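Q:
My hope is that you can spare some time for a protein that puzzles me. I hope you can help me see how the letters and the tokens relate. Thank you; the sequence and its tokens follow:
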Amino acid sequence: MSPVTHFLTGWVVASSVPSLNVKERTLITFAGVVPDIDGLGAIPDFITRNSNDPSEWFSLYHHQLHNIAFGLLVAGIVFVIANHNWTTTLLALFSFHLHLFEDILGGRGPDGYQWPIPYLLPFSNKAQLSWTGQWALNAWPNILITICLLLITFYLAWSTGHSPLEIFSARANEVFVTTIRRRFIRNSTV
């Protein structure tokens, strides 16, 4: 699935516990996106695509961080940054695993390659998680999931006053929430 879908999934997970603060919601959200940091190999691949020695980092390394060891490392970092908050840590680990699940469901590339998840790396390369019915990245189920996550995000912004924009700017979050609340009046009288 797309990074936007993973981001929104992480945000919805983070918003499932009202008592979490902005930092904790941010950590959980980014735990749902960070497995795709191994996809940054696409940048040098794009830059060197017409050279005599093009890189193949994306095809060689994408999904190499989609494993239990990296998930536990991310959870450990979240645990430390979140001041030993187990709720935040467990939700971050859950968000990380939802990313893997979403990739198994809908991460097939345009060439039909399924991008299996090497879940037990670096301990073993034998367990490659995949699903023969995997959707293409631009398939309608992925688009529908993203639209549903957007609607949930808008609802959460309206009802809680928190949107993913708060990660980047408190002011942007305030403007967005105010706009949503004005558009969809909270308590209408009949």
